[in-house]
From TrEMBL:
Its main location: cytoplasm. It is an enzyme of class 6 (ligase). GO terms for cellular component: cytosol; phenylalanine-tRNA ligase complex. It is found in: Cytoplasm. This is phenylalanine--tRNA ligase. PANTHER family: PHENYLALANINE--TRNA LIGASE ALPHA SUBUNIT (PTHR11538:SF40), PHENYLALANYL-TRNA SYNTHETASE (PTHR11538). Residues 428-440 have a biased composition (Pro residues). Keywords: Aminoacyl-tRNA synthetase, ATP-binding, Cytoplasm, Ligase, Magnesium, Metal-binding, Nucleotide-binding, Protein biosynthesis. Residues 251-482 form the Aminoacyl-transfer RNA synthetases class-II family profile domain. One of its GO terms (molecular function) is metal ion binding. Belongs to the class-II aminoacyl-tRNA synthetase family. Phe-tRNA synthetase alpha subunit type 2 subfamily. It holds the Pfam family PheRS_DBD1. Residues 421-440 are annotated as: Disordered.
């Protein structure tokens, strides 16, 4: 059995002085010792706080500290209802009710209704005084409606009821009157919370603090042998684990999507991860012998290896542009093979979806300007390292209209990156297929994995070649960013 522990003030540690809250707890224990000697006797926390000259919340803090020590005290929560005057009720208690003030301000000979409403309490008390039949209104009086007294004198029952309630004599005021005063917002029903405090089974006016942590200092000095420790509550719930957060990539995607929608863009359907080489390459004016179409850069499918069919009329136009030229292009002067265009692959860019949307747009009877965007996954047969993956996301926007220029495109880019809160400068790297040299935003990047610093090209923004748009039946000028 551990040796006896010298008492410490509640909240104090060995070798430290007592703080303010321990003295409040000691005062409460001493008062409880004096005034709750008999069985079942106790103290009301509000009465005890008033007797000790303390704020009630300060005393409640001491009660909770004592409860944490075990069975020193018992504290039963209680609630009581009392009536308090609202600010408007206090004004009525001081000056009288609006209807009585209006009645007493009205001269015997009466006043025009418009002038009566300007008297003290007129705007508020007129309807109440009329309902009480204290006033009468002559609508046919010369000069307009006129208000007169209907009785010689009145009693201010509202002020008297508030006076009794203010003195704490709520039981002398009928419930109907209290409810009427509450409806008029002159009276407030306030719930007062308190504690009924009794002695516990381990009551003492001097209580030792129970330690909650075993410190290295206690182990080094051996003082832990003489200290009481609070029992562990193994049934207590711990902090809930932080869960349910959005992935950072989803957060960025949601932010970019919102920017596009604010700029009036419509989201393109991009659910087909598997594309034919026709839409992924050929429709974008990329030659069939281009190095990017090699299996070292692209994931080709084994089953199904080929698309069942190509759009017949459009495929013929694409073949002609590749092999012979047309629509302002000289072409590549080679034999275009439809079996190569039918090869299925995992799309290497979402621009294949843009080509489909432009083709669908051209099939309409009348052309209408559009703005499309997409944010989705693409696949490249890359060698995996710290900066390259076989799967990543591409953000793409397409604007199709007549008479678009490079200035329109740069204005859209400026608006997009202003909303994104990003800066950069334009450069001119080699253009992608199907487009003249574009303005391209570059910015510095510092790798988190190896600390290297370089400039990256997060966006290319070409203007489509006429050969890439007019062969589908679209306008002669368009814009794209991806």
């Amino acid at each position: 059995m551990a040796p006896a522990v010298p008492p410490l003030p509640v909240g104090a540690r060995p070798g430290s002085g007592a703080a303010m809250s321990p003295s409040v707890a000691e005062l409460l224990l001493q008062r409880l010792e004096r005034e709750a000697a008999g069985p079942g006797r106790g103290l009301c926390s509000r009465e005890a706080a008033a007797a000790l000259g303390l704020d009630h919340q300060t005393l409640v803090g001491a009660v909770k500290s004592l409860q944490a020590l075990g069975e020193v005290i018992e504290a039963e929560p209680r609630a009581a209802t009392r009536w308090e005057l609202s600010p408007e009720g206090s004004e009525v208690l001081r000056d009288g009710s609006p209807e009585v003030r209006l009645f007493r301000s009205l001269p015997v000979e009466g006043l025009p209704q418009s002038d009566a409403m300007k008297l003290p309490g007129g705007s508020v008390g007129f309807s109440k005084a009329m309902a009480n039949k204290w006033l009468r209104l002559e609508k046919g009086a010369p000069g307009g409606p006129r208000v007169f007294r209907a009785v010689p004198e009145v009693q201010d029952t509202v002020q008297e009821a508030l006076r009794r309630l203010h003195r704490g004599e709520a039981e002398t005021v009928p419930e109907r009157e209290r409810n009427d005063l509450k409806r008029r917002k002159l009276l407030l029903e306030v719930t007062l919370k308190s504690y009924w405090i009794r002695k516990g089974s381990a009551f003492s006016t001097a209580v030792a603090r129970q330690e909650t942590e075993l410190t290295p200092e206690m182990l080094a000095t051996g003082s832990w042998r003489q200290l009481p420790f609070k029992p562990y509550n193994f049934a207590a719930l711990g902090l809930p684990p932080p869960a349910g957060h959005l992935h950072p990539l989803l957060k960025v995607r949601s932010e970019l999507r919102q920017i596009f929608l604010e700029m009036g863009f419509t989201e393109m359907p991009t659910q087909n991860f598997v594309e034919s080489s026709f839409w992924n390459f050929d429709a974008l004016f990329q030659p069939q012998q281009h190095p990017a179409r090699d299996q070292h850069d692209t994931f080709f499918l084994q089953d199904p290896a080929e698309a069942p069919e190509l759009p017949p009329g459009y495929a013929a136009k694409v073949k002609k542009v590749h092999s012979q030229g047309g629509y302002g292009s000289q072409g590549y002067k080679y034999e275009w093979k439809p079996e190569e265009a039918r090869r299925n692959l995992l799309r290497t860019h979402t621009t294949a979806a843009s080509a489909r949307m432009l083709y669908r747009l051209a099939q309409q009877e009348r052309f209408s300007p559009v703005k499309y965007f997409s944010i989705d996954r693409v696949f490249r047969n890359e060698s995996l390292d710290a900066t390259h993956l076989a799967e990543f996301h591409q953000v793409e926007g397409v604007v199709a209209d007549r008479g678009l220029t490079l200035g329109h495109l740069m204005g859209i880019l400026r608006q997009f990156f202003t909303k994104l809160g990003t800066g950069g400068h334009t450069d001119t790297p080699p253009p992608p297929p199907g487009a003249p040299p574009p303005p391209t935003l570059c910015c510095p990047q510092v790798s988190a994995s190896c600390g290297s610093s370089r400039r990256i090209t997060p966006i290319q923004s070409p203007v489509w070649r006429c050969s890439a748009t007019t062969r589908v039946g679209g306008p002669h000028h368009g814009g794209k960013g991806g």
